Amino acid sequence: MQVNVIFFGVLSDVVGKNMLTIQDTVNMNDLKSKLITNYPDLKDYTYRMAVNQQMVEDNYLLFDNDSVAVLPPFAGG
Q1: The whole model's pTM is what?
Q2: Which of the pair, 42 or 76, is modelled with greater confidence?
């Protein structure tokens, strides 16, 4: 199983890419752990995550080819 992870704002600078594919992850906790293992500077940032354009919590289950957006804090106007 794979998920596509898209980084926005300063977070794309932190990981050095706008998008990457992560293999063999079952839920958001697992995904966050893998991201922090590969990109330890992420732990210094606040961010939320959305799956297929829906904000989700840490225990959300992931499915093959889900799109995960990693979003820094933002304000509307």
Answers
A1: 0.91
A2: 42
